[in-house]
Amino acid sequence: MLPYVVQRLVQALLIAVIISLTTFLLVFVAKDPARALAPPDASAAEVEALRQRLGLDRPLLVQYGIWAADVLRGDFGDSLYSRQPVALLLAPRIRASAELAGAALLVTVVVGVPLGVAAALRRGGAVDLVASVIAVAGQAMPIFWFGLMLIVVFSVQLGWLPVSGRGELKHLVLPAVTLGFSVLPLTMRLTRSAMLEALPQDYVRTARAKGLGALQVVGKHAARNAATPVVLALGMQFGTLLGGAVVTETVFAWPGIGELAVVAVNTADLPVVQAIVLFTAGVVVVTNLLADVVVGLADPRIRY
Fold first, then answer.
1. Mean pLDDT, to the nearest integer, of 8-37?
2. Residue 215 pLDDT > 70, yes or no?
3. Whole-angstrom Cα distance, residue 70 to residue 221?
4. How far is CA 291 from the centre of its chain?
5. What is the pLDDT of residue 169?
6. Contact 31, 268 (CB under 8 A)
7. Which has more confidence, 147 or 222?
8. Rounded CA gap, 140 and 5, in Å?
9. What spatial distance separates the first Cα and last Cα of the chain, rounded to whole Å?
10. Would you call 245 helix, strand, or coil by DSSP?
11. How open is the CA angle 243-248-254, to the nearest 5 degrees?
12. Which residues contact 268 (CB under 8 A, 6 or more apart)?
């Protein structure tokens, strides 16, 4: 098991270095950092002096090394818009986005996995038909429209839940359902496909021949062996949910990194955009690594 973990860790580190280098170069491709930091009425000489003071006249490789060392210490620089440290702006947003992503993933697991299992057990039946309709609708339906419809029904007409904001648990319900429904079809279809592949296997037929109950056959034997692709998908989806909730956070005014990314792009706040890209990419790498390790522990075949 240890060689497998080391191999996956080395791969994750290489990917992290490539992502950090690409993120670092993002600022230079988009805009001159010295011109962005200088006052609007600064002369060319003042901009050049600022460039030398910030070390922007050094070779890019040296600048990357200094920047990477600062990032490892949690220093992402200062925002061009608010002039505050980017880390201070990002910290509360990360907590809000992690809260939303975790709740959305919970919705996906609680609804998608059982529905996928039921659709596989009742292939061609009513449950399978309902699951197929939900899968097609979830993939075809724009997420912002679904969120707005939830607001119209549960907030405006029924008055059960708040329209937007973050605070109490009830503020989390509509954004979590909206975001969770966006990835629910993938989880459900993967679960269904994995179960359909596992059910005809010899070990399942043997378990049935031994007289085990349906719950033991499905839960202990078929579902356990079918969990590998689902766990890998959930690992990738958490990173996607955490960094890709821009539309959901905008619709529900949820103060996460997605909403901050929209503001940063609109104001050309490159250090904030840079930090958000680096953070979300890092989360995807880490969650994928953890998912690979968990699957490797659960299924020895993966390690080989």
1. 75
2. no
3. 49
4. 13
5. 84
6. yes
7. 147
8. 38
9. 9
10. coil
11. 90
12. 30, 31, 36, 80
What residue spans define the domains of the chain? Answer: 2-72, 94-266
Q: What region, left, alpha or beta, does residue 83 occupy, with left being phi > 0 and alpha being psi -120 to 50 degrees?
A: left
Provide the whole-model pTM.
0.75
**Main-chain phi, psi angles of 212, to 5 degrees:** -70, 150
Amino acid at the residue 262: V
Identify the CATH assignment for 94-266 out of 2.60.120.10, 1.10.3720.10, 3.40.50.2300, 3.30.930.10: 1.10.3720.10
Residue 194 makes CB contacts below 8 A (sequence gap 6+) with: 226, 227, 228, 229, 230
Residues 6+ positions from 7 with CB-CB distance below 8 Å: none
Gap between the Cα atoms of 292 and 93, Å rounded: 27
Phi, psi (degrees; rounded to nearest 5) at 57: -90, 0
Ramachandran angles phi, psi of 18, nearest 5°? -65, -40
Distances in Å between the alpha carbon of 278 and those of 31, 129, 215, 242, 243? 18, 41, 44, 13, 10
Higher pLDDT, 103 or 205: 103
Residue with tokens 């490789």: 61
Distance CA 237, CA 106 (A): 11
- pLDDT exceeds cutoff 70 at 158: yes
